[in-house]
Amino acid sequence: MGNDSDERQAFHIEDGLQPVGPGTDPSLSTSFDATRLDFGHYAGTSIEELATIDPDYLNWLANHPSGSRYRTEIRRVLGVTASPTDWSR
After folding, report:
1. Which domain holds residue 55?
2. Does pTM surpass 0.70?
């Protein structure tokens, strides 16, 4: 195939197939819950429960890249406010 436009063919999508992706349907949006861990040893445990069970883990998680999605909730539960020099917030 060269640059000759006569050689190009139309792209055909088979009948019945649907494109994939998130789209705009709100019912298909993410089910992420920032109040409950979804990975690791504490998967399924709420941040509030962890504050009682293992607060040291929460402090570690708040500073670890894997905990970035949970930082706001961890700080709320632990009563921690971000300092002006805290670049990880």
Report:
1. 33-80
2. no
